[in-house]
């Protein structure tokens, strides 16, 4: 499957169009990782003292590496990014295949383009992969914001009050190897309806967060 065909999405207002590149992780070249690393440091760095550190050393991922990326470019370089990784998670007592969405970033001057454009671009990719659901998480503080952007537009079902246990990407002698966070879940029905999403407020990610 060739995921590298560009897709054009016009930005809001008078902004130039964003050209989307859909690619497998193995298709990225060294120059791509360097450019993405710089993008993530500049995007995540202002949000917290340590949030840009995972992307030092030309690293273009923070925890788990994505399998597929959607990268939006404009005339200034990387504008938007979202990654996806197929994995089995455990929802309550049910093992479930999902395409986890994460590693989302938008350049500060393009906030208006937002996550809705990224989700729309990623939908056809997830359909081609045949996964039952897309799944992602955001901080609980963003529940109202994400509901307005995705829930009300029917792009995702918003599930508040989830607890997710994840493996830390690195081992430290002073902290446990896993962590549990209370988050807001985002579920995208792809090959199965939302009615088939398992019941359960505890999710085992069984790996690092994307």
From TrEMBL:
- Extract the Pfam families matched here: NodA
Q: Which GO terms describe its molecular function?
A: acyltransferase activity
Q: Report keywords, A-Z.
A: Acyltransferase, Cytoplasm, Nodulation, Transferase
Span-the-membrane segments of this chain are none
Classify the source by domain of life: Bacteria
Which compartment or compartments is the protein found in? Answer: Cytoplasm
Q: What is its EC number?
A: 2.3.1.-
List cellular component terms (GO): cytosol
Per the record, the similarity remark reads: Belongs to the NodA family.
Q: What is this protein's function per UniProt?
A: N-acyltransferase required for nodulation. Acts in the production of a small, heat-stable compound (Nod) that stimulates mitosis in various plant protoplasts.
Among HAMAP family, the record links this protein to:
NodA
Spell out the protein name for this chain. Answer: Nodulation protein A
Q: Organism, per UniProt? A: Bradyrhizobium japonicum
Taxonomic lineage: Bacteria, Pseudomonadati, Pseudomonadota, Alphaproteobacteria, Hyphomicrobiales
Gene symbol?
nodA
């Amino acid at each position: 499957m060739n995921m590298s065909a560009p897709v054009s999405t016009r930005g809001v207002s008078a902004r130039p169009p964003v050209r989307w590149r859909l690619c497998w992780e193995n298709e990225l070249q060294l120059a791509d990782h360097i450019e993405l690393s710089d993008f993530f440091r500049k995007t995540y760095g202002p949000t917290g003292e340590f949030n840009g550190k995972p992307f030092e050393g030309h690293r273009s991922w923070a925890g788990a590496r994505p399998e597929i990326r959607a990268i939006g470019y404009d005339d200034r370089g990387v504008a938007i990014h979202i990654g996806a990784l197929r994995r089995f998670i455990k929802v309550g007592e049910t093992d479930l295949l999902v395409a986890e969405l994460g590693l989302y970033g938008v350049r500060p001057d393009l906030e208006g383009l937002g996550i809705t454009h990224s989700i729309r671009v990623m939908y056809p990719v997830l359909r081609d992969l045949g996964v039952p659901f897309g799944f992602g998480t955001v901080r609980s503080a963003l529940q109202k914001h994400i509901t307005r952007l995705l829930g009300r537009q029917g792009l995702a079902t918003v599930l508040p009050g989830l607890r997710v246990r994840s493996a830390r990407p690195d081992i430290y002698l002073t902290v446990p190897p896993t962590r549990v966070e209370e988050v807001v879940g985002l579920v995208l029905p792809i090959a199965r309806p939302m009615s088939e999403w398992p019941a359960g407020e505890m999710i085992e990610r069984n790996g690092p967060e994307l």
